[in-house]
Amino acid sequence: MGVVMDFREKLRHKQLVSERRALQDLSFSKIEEAVQRYFGQYLIQIPAAGAAGKEMCAEYALESFLLGSSMGRFGFYGEEKIDVFKRCKVEFYGLFDDFYDFWLFWGTDQQLLDDLQDTCRKYLFYWWSEGYDASLKRWRLKLY
């Protein structure tokens, strides 16, 4: 007799293995540098929440990186990067909305909020691109 399989469980296991491989390419020091580069001026505005802000930035960088790394195979098979990004636009902007709402909670002044939205988008796209490029490299080296 054959073994009865739950395909959702199999898919989840495959996703976990893929995410573990992707995270091998990511270093926390690189995330910390990016947080300082993108959000240094905003973290100064909210000194009471500096640690929480850094943790949330790292968490969203990780999620965006994993989203990008899950899309690398499409680039391997010939799609342009911008077309691949369009495939996951809904998930990306879901992350973006949550991340921007986190920063809105701390309520910096209105002039900074306009710039903050663009900064959040650039930060998440930077990590999406890093994940995508790392995954594309793994696919090209047949390490998937």
Protein described:
It holds the Pfam family DUF2521. This is AlteRNAte gene name: ybxH. There is one protein chain. The protein has one domain (7-140). Helices cover 80% and strands 0% of the residues. It is built from seven helices and no strands. α3 (50-69) runs antiparallel to α6. It is elongated, with a radius of gyration of 17 Å. The two termini are 32 Å apart. The model has no long low-confidence stretch (mean pLDDT 87).
SSE blueprint:
Blueprint: H1 7-23, H2 28-45, H3 50-69, H4 72-76, H5 81-87, H6 89-105, H7 110-140
Helix pairs in contact: 2-3, 2-7, 3-6, 3-7, 6-7
InterPro entries: Uncharacterised_YbaK
Organism: Sporolactobacillus inulinus
Protein name: AlteRNAte gene name: ybxH
Question: Runs with pLDDT <50, length 5+?
Answer: none
User: How would the global form be characterised?
Assistant: elongated
Number of domains: 1
In DSSP terms, counting alpha (H) and pi (I) runs of 4 or more, how many helices? 7
Computed Rg: 17 Å
Give the % helix: over 70%
Protein name: AlteRNAte gene name: ybxH
InterPro entries: Uncharacterised_YbaK
Organism: Sporolactobacillus inulinus
Pfam family, one: DUF2521
Which characteristics define this entry?
0% strand; mainly alpha; 144 residues
